[in-house]
């Protein structure tokens, strides 16, 4: 092709391009994107509105999920807390039975159960259980009468009302003082109140049984050398009469408590045809073994 032909071609191409640019300028309704994608202003408006709507929906969804998650978490925490409290309560009740069956010391009680033990007294639950048990004992003896042909006896564990673990009591008192100092609710009862209640109700029960003609034999884990002190203590709390007071002899000091009680009950049953009608105690060592009579009653203890 001649040089003149090439020049004509270039001029024609330039004119064609200029005409396109002029057309685009006159219409004024097209956007040129560098990637080569063209979009009208109407389509762009719709696209941007769609993006905004989608963003609002996503934000709303995220907020809703966050609120739901927080609500579920709060409910879950509440369930766990209640569940843990229930676990502690059941654990301490199970430990109490385990401790009594194995004659564990009160100082072996876990700290969490010490707090619950004080609450058991403070909230009036101990008083309620003690009253219910005393009522059951009285109801039982209302259905029977002492025999005229042989002596019927009722065995009463007096260590329930005369003895306590000083170390354990001091721990509970310190816990109680801590609760008072640091804002806990004012208690409706105390360890001293519980002990006084136990003494009063037990003495009243024994007096009622004696009035109905039952012979009472008092049993203690203490050694014989403390007899006079024990009698004085019994008289101080209003316990002034009984059929017999049995305490450990020197040969029985090394015995386990349950063995000592079994031995004494067998001796009572064999002596002059005595019949043991009932044994009353709050401790398992006095309520296990042979010669327990017709009915045993376990008084509640924290």
Automatic annotation (TrEMBL):
Signal peptide: none annotated. The chain crosses the membrane at residues 37-67. The keyword Nucleus does not apply. Keywords: Membrane, Transmembrane, Transmembrane helix. InterPro entries: Acid_phosphat_B-like (IPR005519), HAD_sf (IPR023214). It holds the Pfam family Acid_phosphat_B. This is HAD superfamily, putative isoform 2. It comes from Hibiscus syriacus.
């Amino acid at each position: 092709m001649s040089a003149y032909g090439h020049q004509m071609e270039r001029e024609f191409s330039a004119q064609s391009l200029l005409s396109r640019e002029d057309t685009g300028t006159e219409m004024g309704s097209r956007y040129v994107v560098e990637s080569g994608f063209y979009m009208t202003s109407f389509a762009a408006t719709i696209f941007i509105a769609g993006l905004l709507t989608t963003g609002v929906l996503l934000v709303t969804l995220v907020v809703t999920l966050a609120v739901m998650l927080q609500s579920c978490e709060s409910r879950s925490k509440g369930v766990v807390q209640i569940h843990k409290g229930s676990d502690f309560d059941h654990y301490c009740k199970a430990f109490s039975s385990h401790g009594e069956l194995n004659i564990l010391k009160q100082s072996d009680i876990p700290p969490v159960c010490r707090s619950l033990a004080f609450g058991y007294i403070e909230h009036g639950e101990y008083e309620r259980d003690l009253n219910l048990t005393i009522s059951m004992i009285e109801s039982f003896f209302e259905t029977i009468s002492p025999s005229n042909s042989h002596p019927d006896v009722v065995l009463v564990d007096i260590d329930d009302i005369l003895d306590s673990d000083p170390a354990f009591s001091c721990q509970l008192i310190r816990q109680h003082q801590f609760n008072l100092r640091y804002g806990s609710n004012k208690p409706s009862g105390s360890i001293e109140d519980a002990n006084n209640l136990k003494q009063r109700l037990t003495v009243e029960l024994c007096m009622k049984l004696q009035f109905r003609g039952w012979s009472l034999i008092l049993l203690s884990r203490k050694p014989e050398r403390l007899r006079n002190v024990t009698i004085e203590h019994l008289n101080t709390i209003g316990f002034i009469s009984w059929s017999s007071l049995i305490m450990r002899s020197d040969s029985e000091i090394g015995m386990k408590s349950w063995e000592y009680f079994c031995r004494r009950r067998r001796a009572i049953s064999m002596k002059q045809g005595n019949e043991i009608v009932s044994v009353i105690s709050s401790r398992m060592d006095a309520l296990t073994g042979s010669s327990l009579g017709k009915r045993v009653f376990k008084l509640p203890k924290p």
